[in-house]
């Protein structure tokens, strides 16, 4: 797939305008959804309030399975925001595709899922791992956190536990990136096939595109669920005494 993102260089630093723009759009969609569904709340929810509460309860269920009951409320908002960000980021690239060919004939993409970029997913994963360590320090203090996170149940496992902090970032970020990027690549290939020989290939490619769109939506939802679940598991290791 011969395409690139729109890159600008400022003060010697490269900025991916496609990813930045799609990330801002993702945040705007999440804010609009939450703001719109939380207006005029009622004791007997209906309509859009039911949708919002269903998402909140779903995320709360993830935390209930991995964190102590008394800690769920402390991290519910973080998990809710994380789940919606990953979910919308996964889905937004399935809506359409905007490409412009430059003078060199290279397709410059202006619309794609933010999570189809490894820097986004690895940065998000690293941020979550850093936060879990921060929450552990905040709860137990620096010494208590170090003992609980790295010296229990036995001290000789400390090197492995240090290594886990780095491997968790890689597995958390690359799993998400690989699934979303692969889905977008295949959708692009199907789209190119549909346009290759006119109406003949279009007829064959249309049902295939629809099936893969549905499968990609399913995978996007599953990956958002897995990302939040694993984050809550890593968090429980830091805030729960061994």
From TrEMBL:
- How does this chain sit within the bilayer? Multi-pass membrane protein
Q: Which residues cross the membrane?
A: 20-38, 77-98, 118-137, 185-206, 212-235
Quick one: a GO biological-process term for this protein? Answer: proton motive force-driven plasma membrane ATP synthesis
According to the record, the signal peptide region is none
Q: Is Lipid metabolism there in the keyword field?
A: no
Keyword rRNA processing carried by entry: no
Q: Name one GO molecular function term.
A: proton-transporting ATP synthase activity, rotational mechanism
Main localization is membrane
The alphabetized UniProt keywords are: ATP synthesis, Cell membrane, CF(0), Hydrogen ion transport, Ion transport, Membrane, Transmembrane, Transmembrane helix, Transport
Compartments where located:
Cell membrane; Membrane
Q: Which GO terms describe its cellular component?
A: plasma membrane; proton-transporting ATP synthase complex
Note one Pfam family from the annotation. Answer: ATP-synt_A
Instruction: Identify the PROSITE patterns for this entry.
Output: ATPASE_A
Top-level taxon of the source organism: Bacteria
Similarity field: Belongs to the ATPase A chain family.
The role this protein plays is:
Key component of the proton channel; it plays a direct role in the translocation of protons across the membrane.
- The identity of this protein, by name, is ATP synthase subunit a
Which organism is the protein's source? Vagococcus humatus
Gene, per the UniProt record: atpB
């Amino acid at each position: 797939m011969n395409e690139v993102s729109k890159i600008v260089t400022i003060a010697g630093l490269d900025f991916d305008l496609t990813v930045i723009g799609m990330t801002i759009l993702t945040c705007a969609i999440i804010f609009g959804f939450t703001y719109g569904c939380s207006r005029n709340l009622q004791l007997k929810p209906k309509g859009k309030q039911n949708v919002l509460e269903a998402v909140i309860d779903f995320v709360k269920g993830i935390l209930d399975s991995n964190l102590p009951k008394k800690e769920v409320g402390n991290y519910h908002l973080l998990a809710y925001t994380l789940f919606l960000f990953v979910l919308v980021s996964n889905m937004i690239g399935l809506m359409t595709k905007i490409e412009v060919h430059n003078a060199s004939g290279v397709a410059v993409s202006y619309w794609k899922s933010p999570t189809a970029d490894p820097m986004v997913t690895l940065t998000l994963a690293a941020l979550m791992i850093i936060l879990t360590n921060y929450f552990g320090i905040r709860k137990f203090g620096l010494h208590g956190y170090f003992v609980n996170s790295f010296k229990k149940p036995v001290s000789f496992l400390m090197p492995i536990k240090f290594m886990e902090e780095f491997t968790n970032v890689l597995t958390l970020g690359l799993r998400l990136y690989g699934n979303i990027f692969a889905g977008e690549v295949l959708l692009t290939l199907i789209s190119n096939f549909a346009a290759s020989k006119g109406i003949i290939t279009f007829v064959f490619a249309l049902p295939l595109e629809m099936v893969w769109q549905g499968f990609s939506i399913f995978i996007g939802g599953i990956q958002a669920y897995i990302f939040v679940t694993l984050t809550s598991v890593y968090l429980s290791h830091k805030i729960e005494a061994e």
